[in-house]
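Let us work through a complete example step by step.
Step 1: write down the sequence.
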Amino acid sequence: MERFNNKKILLSLIICIPIVFGGFIKNESMEPAYKMTKIVLDAGHGGRDPGNLGSRSKEKDINLAVTLLVGKYIEEFLPDVEIIYTRKDDSFPELKERPIIANKNKAHLFVSIHSNSAANRSAYGTETWVMGMKHFDANFDIVKRENSVILLEDNYEENYEGFDPSSPESYMMFNLMSKAYFENSVTLAGNVEAQFKDRVGRKSRGVKQGPFYVLWTPSMPSVLVELGFLSNSNEERFLMSKQGQEYMASAIFRSIRDYKESIEAR
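Step 2: predict the structure and record it as tokens.
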């Protein structure tokens, strides 16, 4: 009888162990099917290319400061994500090399950070761009300006196979772009603009499309963020300030975090 009771107790323990400790055992089926673990952060311009010039600032410096802060926040709050920078100092990676870095490292996301400028000094606000040809004529000036970086590179005619950033005809090749990452790029871009508007209180000029060379070749969702207009004295002052840079960087970080959570939950 005692042996029978012992068997009953042992059997009960065997049955209860999975119930009691099941919550502590890792369930592989609960892991997301897709995980975003590698991001390339691209600080636009650099080195001999200052980018847009404000009355007291250079675009390359603001881009780098904000980019490094974005990376810092990701490293702190998303420790499972590896950050790859196209530059971490005042160097000049060629335009073509930036997406190549992303492709070689098989990154899951490419984020290029820039600052805007306009002849109209009252223009202000943020913009986030994805690769596309919509409203090409209206957006040609900013697209031409960003792509004209290649003119500062050695052997650019050979490296870019005759692409002329000032010629609208040269952009016909961008119609051959892959649509594979467009939807996810738009989702991330929308996140960025929502964060700028709702959390930082900046004017959002919306998500836009443009044939930027740096967005054409990455084999992953990609966006180009314009933090604001250095030609606007108030916006330049904000972007030069430590607080302004922290606010913009934290907004970009939150947009990446929310994007990561949304695609991993699918």
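Step 3: interpret the result. The longest helix spans residues 242-264.
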